[in-house]
Structure formats: C-alpha cells, structure tokens
Amino acid sequence: MKILQTRKRQLGQGMTEYIIIVALVAIGAIGVYKYFGQAVNATTAVAAESLAGQTQATSRGNAKSASGKAQQNAQTASTMGTFEQNAN
From the first residue on, what is the mean pLDDT of each consecutive set of 10 residues in the chain (88 residues)? Predict the structure, then answer.
C-alpha cells in the first residue's frame, strides 16, 4: 500500500514539473510574439500575396516597417523602472 502511494506522488511530481516547463515556454513565446508579432504577420502576408500572384508592394512596406519597430524594441533597455513606458 505504501509503495503505491509513493508511486502516485512521483507521478504527480513529474506532471507538476512538466506543467511548470510548459508555462515557462508559453510565457517566453508570448514575449517573443509581442516584439516580433507584427513583423512575422507582415512577412507572412507578403508570402501569401506572392503565392496568390498579386503585387505585394504595400505588404512589403508594412513588413519593413514592422521589422524596424521590432529591431528598435529589441535594442531598447527594459528595466522595472521603464516597464510602464515599454508596455505602450
């Protein structure tokens, strides 16, 4: 009986560790998407328009603009003191 209880605790511990790792990966993905989401979206739009045989001048300009903003955000120093400014 005691062996069965120990086994259940070990399985629960493994599941808890897995959930923590998944949560950390999700938080990281949200952060990356916040900075680079517009650039990825614009680049995907250019590719979709190219595949459809349409001109992609507007989308290409949007992609360059979003890429520049993402690069600027990546180079901006983020601290707890500037957190509210960086959120905008």
Answer: 65 82 91 78 78 71 74 72 63
Q: What is the number of other CB atoms lying within 10 angstroms of the CB of residue 37?
A: 13
Question: Can you tell me which residue has the tokens 């990546």?
Answer: 74
pTM: 0.42
**How many angstroms separate the Cα of 30 from the Cα of each of 12, 24, 71, 82?**
27, 10, 17, 19
Q: How far apart are CA 15 and CA 76, in angstroms?
A: 37
Give the distance between the most distant pair of CA atoms in the chain. 70
46 touches 56 (CB < 8 A): yes
As a whole number of angstroms, the distance between CA 73 and CA 79 comes to 13
Q: What is the pLDDT of residue 31?
A: 81
